[in-house]
Amino acid sequence: GNFKSPMVIRVASGGYLQGGGVYHSQSGVNLFTHLPGLHVVMPANSVDAAGLLRTAIRCDDPVIFLEHKHLYRQPHGKAPYPGQDYTIPLGKARLHREGEDITIVTYGATVRRSELAARELEKEGVSVEILDLRSLSPWDHEAVAASVKKTNRCLVVYEDNISFGFGAEISAWVADHLFDWLDAPVGRVAAIDTPVPYQPDSEDFVLPQSEDVAIELRRLLEY
User: Fold this and answer.
1) Which entry of 24, 70, 141, 177 is annotated as an active-site residue?
2) Class of domain 7-77
3) In the CATH scheme, what is the code of domain 94-221?
4) Quick one: which of 63, 110, 156, 174 is 20 to 30 A from 168 by CA?
């Protein structure tokens, strides 16, 4: 119980690179979250990156700090510098968007795609809540439970392959622990079970897009 292993490993991860292919566009989150003892985080914006990195550096346990390559280039993730003492606790999700009708649980680059889908559904009178986990191991069970108990529907959006991906664990936990509050099955939107191809149109087909999220939101709302 007294053993310490303070280490931060920064890992460039993720797709949506338009030509990264199998060697540069795979997500692989589940490879790290499957290992007991590792903390795993994946920020979706610059403020969370700053706060989580400071927390990771001060942690006495090893932390895998996943940096989504696509988000390096995106202006929507920019924000004013939060200050040198700004930190974010591990295991605490961020309420990205408040809603009443359905909850999306997501992280990384799929936060933005979920946001675009939520805006589209808003035109149809649907209020979508979005939780950005940002910390994947541990992840915020309490925040997910509170949101699902409010909206009674849950969609998990993640970039891993849909089979054996990290989002499958979230889906299973929601189904096991929140069944009495659900008005529809837990939905999932994720990558197709195939390596990410080089060809840009094929990459877009394999990885989850905002249109895929919107389609699944409508299906769950009509259940």
Assistant:
1) 24
2) alpha beta
3) 3.40.50.920
4) 63
